[in-house]
Amino acid sequence: MTQKKIKFLADRFVEGTCPNCGYEHAYGDQCESCGSSLNPTDLINPKSKLSGEKPITKETTHWYLPLGNYENFIKEWIIKRKKK
C-alpha cells in the first residue's frame, strides 16, 4: 500500500533490490535474476511500480472460502445465468 494513493499493491507491483543477489529490479514475490522466492518486505529499497513511492505495510484480514464445498451450487448458478 502506498500512503498517497491508498491502494493495496500485489507482490508484482512492488519492486526493489534483491537481498540475495543485489539485482535492483526484483519483484515483491521473486527475483528474476537469481530465482529466489521473496516477500515484499524482504526487498531493499522497495518502491511501488505504479507511483514510485515507498510502500507502507498494514495488517489485513484475509478470508479463505472452501469453494470445493460449493462446487455443485456454483456450477448450477453459472449455468442458469448463462442461459438467460
CATH architecture title of the domain at 1-57: Beta Complex
Percentage of residues in helical conformation: 10-25%
CATH class of the domain at 1-57: Mainly Beta
3D shape: elongated
Secondary structural class: alpha+beta
Distance between the termini: 40 Å
Q: Major β-sheet, in short? A: 3 strands, antiparallel
Strand runs, count: 3
Detail the poorly predicted runs: none
H-E string? EEEH
Key terms:
alpha+beta, 3 strands, Methionyl-trna Synthetase, domain 2, 84 residues, 3-stranded antiparallel sheet
Sum this structure up briefly.
With 84 residues, the protein is α+β, with helices and mostly antiparallel strands. Helices cover 15% and strands 13% of the residues.
Q: Care to describe what's here?
A:
This protein is an alpha+beta fold. It has a domain at 1-57: Methionyl-trna Synthetase, domain 2 (Beta Complex), CATH 2.170.220. The chain has 1 helix and 3 strands, in the order E-E-E-H. It has one helix at residues 71-83, and strands at residues 14-17, 26-27, 44-48. Strands 2-1-3 form a 3-stranded antiparallel β-sheet, with no helix packed on it. Strand 1 (14-17) and strand 2 form a beta hairpin. The protein is elongated, with a radius of gyration of 19 Å. The relative contact order is 0.20. The mean pLDDT is 90.
